[in-house]
Design brief:
The complex is a heterodimer of chains A (about 270) and B (about 270). With about 270 residues, chain A is an alpha/beta fold. Helices cover about 35% and strands about 20% of the residues of chain A. Chain A has ten helices and ten strands. Chain A starts with 6 loop residues before the first strand and ends in a 6-residue tail after the last helix. Chain B has about 270 residues and is an all-alpha fold. In chain B, helix 5 (about 90-130) packs across helix 8 and helix 5 packs antiparallel against helix 10. The longest helix of chain B is centred in the middle third of the chain and has 40 residues, at about 145-180. The chains are: A alpha/beta (about 270), B mainly alpha (about 270). The interface of A and B includes residues 111 and 153 of A.
Amino acid sequence: MPQEPIVEIRNVSFGYEAARPVLRDIDLAIERGAVVGIMGQSGCGKTTLLRIIMGALAPTRGEARVLGHATAELERDGLYAMRRKMGMLFQFGALFTDMSVFENVAFPMREHGGLPEEVIHDLVMLKLQAVGLRGAAHLRPTELSGGMARRVALARSIALDPQLILYDEPFTGLDPISFGVIVRLIRELNDSLGATSVIVTHDVQEALGVVDYVYFMAAGRVIAKGTPDEIRSSPEPFVNQFVNGKPDGPVPFHYPAPDYRADLELAPA
Amino acid sequence: MSLATLRARIERLGAAMSSHVWRIGYASRFLFYMLVHSGTALKRFHLTIAEIYFAGVLSLIIILVSGLFVGMVLGLQGYETLQRFGASESLGVLVALSLVRELGPVVAGLLFASRAGSAITAEIGLMKATEQLSAMEMMAVDPVARVVAPRFWGGVISMPLLAALFSAMGVFGGYLVGVQLIGVDAGAFWSQMQAAVDLRNDILNGVYKSIVFGIAVTWIAVFEGYDAVPTAEGVSRATTRTVVTSSLAILALDFVLTALMFTGTEK
């Protein structure tokens, strides 16, 4: 019997205000073990979709099932129990600035584990070793570069060996070396933990190199889906413009404006 | 003024009023939720102790120095007035009653709001703006229980202690000026104070006031931080609101409490 998808979004619509829907009729299913990208332009609704997967927002219509639970039906305790099986990497890391790198990674273990301090120490060192920052355990978040902070946050998000790891714009603001490190870590950690990863990003070219499957969003809808190769060769004009970074296309280069000649006062009298 | 303008103004006033009432209701629900989820702050008391350090111990300098100067000014002004009536020996009573009943809780409360209240709001607001609170939520850790409640209890516990220290320091300041500098008799200064200051009517009522001020200031501070718009400007506005609202709350509550405590209860 095939396994139930780890994330299943069925016919989901959502709007912060009833008159302005952000998501419309979204359907997607994320299989266990995959690294899946949700891509699209800023403001297309992908972060809202991520918040629905996190259980931070409830769909206005439709159903979101995550780790076997319909998120909208969960009370606070149920939601927290579900989140203990999830890890989340925030856009800029969201490290606790009043704690050291070590304490940041130990935080979820101390809050939930009830583990002896020696065990926590070893586990934290294992996680930091996995992201190459064991030697930075004593540093404060303010002493880290952007790429290092992202790696510490990644170590913290896998502290409890999650089944599902969510990434919110993990590549934003990274230099090429840090970017390469994060891409490699996402793949390696996903495969070594036997987890499932969902990457929300607008860095399409970069993300296509790491994901197994892509959902492409525009204006609150999924307009294309497929493997990275299928997305690269998609006939959909918007996807084509986005993947190839063309300045003009369905998303116009020019902001709507009156006739250019009229603005230059060249129009015939 | 046309009828339409009048109507628009009344509508704006109504909208502003209902928005304020809504916000008070929201803040009350927040307080209730925080009290219900205070288990972590009380069970893992070291979290609260750390906040007592930040809100209380780090406010000591400003509280002690201010208390000393307020007491010294009271000594000068009190002597100046009392000696006109030949009652300069009552200086100790005047200084002590002024401090334990009013100035201790009120001035310490105002200083606490500016020093610790603003820091609490800014810290929680910045944690929100940098997604630290969301990260906690995603780790299945309730930020109200883990971050807000320890700060609330830390503030509530610190405030009466700071007010007591403020009053003690003020009495010492009054003694320095009245007895050491001006030359009021030390025996009269202390014995009249001892005879006139009542434990229940004066000291305990002052302590109750400072507890109420501590609850009000810290509640406002944690709520404003948690509810701040998560931007630099939003946090700045929330911090300002904390200082303004809690200062006004202290003064208004002081009037109400004084009316309840000291009217018609004394012989």
